[in-house]
Structure formats: structure tokens, C-alpha cells
What we know:
The longest helix has 28 residues. The protein has a single domain, classed as Class I glutamine amidotransferase (GATase) domain (Rossmann fold), CATH 3.40.50. 35% of the residues lie in helices and 22% in strands. By secondary structure, the protein is of the alpha/beta class. The strands form three sheets. The chain has an eight-stranded mixed sheet with strand order 2-1-3-4-12-11-10-7, sandwiched between helices. A two-stranded antiparallel ribbon has the order 5-9. The protein has a two-stranded antiparallel ribbon with strand order 6-8. Helix 1 links the parallel strand 1 and strand 2. The chain is globular and about 45 Å long. The protein contains seven helices and twelve strands.
Amino acid sequence: MRALAISHVGFEDLGSLGRELIDAGAGVESVDACTADLSAIDALSPDLMVVLGGPIGVYQSDDYPFIADEIGLIQKRIGAKRPTLGICLGAQLMAAALGAKVYPGAQGGEIGWAAVEASSDLCRFPNLARFINRTERFLHWHGDSFNLPLGATRLARSEKYINQAFAFEDIALGVQFHPEVTAEMLERWYVGHAAELAQRHIDICALRAESRRFAPRLEESARQFWRDWIEAGFQLTAGP
Length: 240
């Protein structure tokens, strides 16, 4: 089993998902989207491809030309019906690869711990439904939003944004929130995103206190979801 992570900043990694993949015996490779030749990557060979978060916008391809190649990589992957997970920016890139518009969120930035509300269609994905329904708060850290891609299924929303999670068929999952984070890895985020936190007047001490409260609970519920998902061969509808 082999997993490929596409990263955009070094401190946003696979987190708790990485640990479970390694424990399951997977070979895990990470590629830096900013510097790698994405057009040379075999989109189909990994058993799982995970597109991680980052502080740029999908619509900034003039400033960050690699975005076009990254979208093309995701299109090939999903077109071949290969398991794909997009987290935050990754979900936005996935939405763009499926033809949806990505844009600055009309409700402003969403940074911090908040609940997500399951949609009526989430019951079609039993493992994911258990994960979302038993997790009190998820970490949100984004300023952009996107339209639901044609043919995709909306799975969850938050108070501010209607598209917090979506599935495309049984093989692709996009989540605007961060199911992978741990309290320890977030210490790197507070430094790496210091300018954004200051610009948005977010109290880092208060955010850290929330993370210490909610991150362990998230990690516990995420661990079980990752294990069930890996055991199911990354098929979203599989499960008891």
C-alpha cells in the first residue's frame, strides 16, 4: 500500500492520518507542490492521494503557476476513479478539478474550533457519518469557499459555510475543515500562520487553549475513522 501527500507548506502535514497509514504498513511519500514537477507525477499509481492545506487561493494561478498542474493531477486521479482526499486548500483544488468555482468566502475567514452539521446524505457513508456525528468540534482554518461540484454529494456544513464536506462517487472526499490535526502539530501552525493570525486579530493563547481541549477528542475519533477507511480500501461507502 502506498500513499502520496501533496503539501504546500512544510508544517501542514498528514498529522494523525500519517500515523495510521504507517501503522497499517503503508509507504508514505510527500511531494512539495510548490517545487516539484507535478506534470511528471504518476497520478494513478498511489493507492491514496492526499492534497493538503495551504494559505494560497486556487484562483491565484498567475502568482502560483503550479496550481494549474496540480488541478490537472487531481483531474487525472479522480477521472481514473482512484481514492483521493482533499483537506482545506486540497478540497478547494478538488472542487476546481471537478469544474466548480472557488472564491474568497463571503462570510469572512473561519479560524478556530467549531461544529459541523451533517447533511441528510451523510448516512450513505457510514464510517464518515460516525466520525462527524461523534466529533464535537473540528478545526477550521480558511478564508475561501467553493461551489458544490456537479455530481458531488454535500455531506456537511458549518454555521458560516454550506460546503464543509463533499464526496464524489465513492472515491473522492473533500473536507474544508481539518480532521488530521493534533495539538502538537498546531504549535507549528501558530508560528507559520503568525501574520494571518495577527491580521485577523486572533488571540493565539485562546486558540491554543481551545486546541488543547478539542484536539485530543478529534484525534481519538479521527483515528478510528482513518483505520476504518484504510481497512475499507479507501472506499467511502464501505462499512458496517
